[in-house]
Amino acid sequence: MRKPSARWRSSRRALHLSAPYLLGTAVVLVTLGAAQLAVTQRARVDLANYTTGLLVHAEDVARASVDGLNRVLRISAEPCGPSDLAELRLIAFHSRYIKDVGRVISGRPLCTAMWGRLPTPVKLAPPHRVVRGYSLWRSVPAPGDDRIKVDLASYGNAIVTTAPTAFDRVSMPVGSIGALVISRDGKHHFQTFGDAFDLTLGKDGLAAPLAGHISTRACSNEFDICVVSQARAGSLWGQPSWTVASILALALVGGGSLGALLKVSQGRRRALHRMLARAIRHGDIDLVYQPLRRLSDRRMVGVEALARWRTLAGVDVPPDTFVPMAEEQGLGTALAKLVIVKSLEEMGPRLRRGDGFYASINLSAQDILDSELRHFLSEQTEAFGVSPADVVLEFTERSTASQQDLADALGQLDQAGFRVYLDDFGTGYSNFAYLADLPLAGLKMDRRFTRAMGTLSPASYAVEAICAMAKALSLPLVAEGVETEMQALAMHRLVPEAVGQGWLLGKPCKADSLPDDMLGLTTNGSPAPAC
């Protein structure tokens, strides 16, 4: 038998020596391929979830418009007469997604709940779409004021205006997702969301294929509405560098390193949990107070108590981190009690003057529902000689509690003399009916709307609606995040008696650094620094 040549033996030896490297490379490639598949699948799931959620909300908006039109048609009073206008206002008042309702004859709006009887009815442009007798318009001049662009729907002699905030509850798409709310044939666009500039539709209403992208479509069984969404397929290399590094490490050395890192991270978080529990137990949570000023004369009418925590190592932990952490450990009530006691103790001398100055304290909805905590509030105000009327309790509307339970708890606090304000108003799901059922003493407008005043953003239109809602319910309004004179003046024009809070009016500081005078004004009339 012929012996293998020297060249063959050399090649075999080289292959043998390189086998581990080839195997390692194969493992890496397989792992990266699987990871890429997982990234793409996750992108598809996220896109499908977003599309479905948007469709459900679009159906809610459409259902509200149809219901509003039907309610208008059922009114038996003379069209545009006093009784008819009163019923139209009631319909607009109780609808979450309708801004205005009215009457239209021969394509000319005659009257609306908002504008009353129109002196010179202007004929509407031809509708952009007619389906099953319903006429639809997209971004046309509003009846009563052609400077405002609105979406309209009409049926018979009824017409409704979709609220500009109707889709505010829909979270904006994350990353590269773009979405269109369209008619089933794709010829009418209702709304656009996110990165939809590259999203083009074919004749069938489906998204035209775009390289490196995925798309999905969902249609309503009830209305002529579809949602078409598109997003980048996602790339493993587009993920955070630490993710890619972790996958490579997992492929090369297994899960040991990743497990160790996770253990260290979990250990640090557990240590922070223990430090927070100790801080709450020993009262090592500090409070600062931010002035609340009436915008008409910049008079300081109260302060909001804000919790601050610095670890023993001197690290400042933000409230957005340690407050949820306390609630995770079941320490939310203990933290709330600590804030109540400290704020009454530190602000007690100011509150006992009896001049209407008040301290505002943040509570969760669960705190409001806790009968023991409500009793604790009454005990502590009595112990510190503070009138409950000089304590404002703030809570957000993002709660899973039933409305009736919440109304009962708020009613008990109201009977005890406390005032309760709805915080971050405008970011949740409240409407006229929701607010009218709760014994609230005031509303606090979220800072995102304050920042939008004077701009052309959609949120700026919501400010007027929020102010109108507060006025209709006779509720005091506090505007958060007032940082510029323009914002303060704009808010004052809308609600002359409004109270403002923000860096323009005073930064948070310790109780003993607050100005002792109630006005706190400088010689030129501007607020003095709080600290």
Task: Kindly describe this structure.
The protein is an alpha/beta fold. Helices cover 41% and strands 22% of the residues. It has 13 helices and 20 strands. It has helices spanning 6-73, 82-94, 241-253, 256-282, 319-328, 332-351, 365-369, 371-383, 403-415, 432-436, 447-452, 458-472, 485-494; strands at 98-105, 108-112, 116-117, 129-131, 134-142, 145-155, 158-162, 178-182, 189-194, 213-219, 226-232, 286-294, 300-310, 316-317, 358-362, 391-396, 419-425, 442-445, 477-479, 499-500. Strands 12-13-15-16-17-18-19-20 form an eight-stranded mixed barrel. Strands 3-2-1-7-6-5-4 form a seven-stranded antiparallel beta sheet. Strand 8 (178-182) and strand 9 form a beta hairpin. Helix 1 (6-73) packs across helix 3 (241-253) and helix 6 (332-351) packs parallel to helix 8. The longest helix is centred in the N-terminal third of the chain and has 68 residues, at 6-73. Residues 12-21, 254-265 and 520-525 have low confidence and may be disordered.
Short recap of the structure:
With 531 residues, the protein is of the alpha/beta class. It is 41% helix and 22% strand. The chain has 13 helices and 20 strands.
Kindly list the characteristics that best describe this protein.
531 residues, 8-stranded mixed barrel, alpha/beta, 41% helix, 22% strand
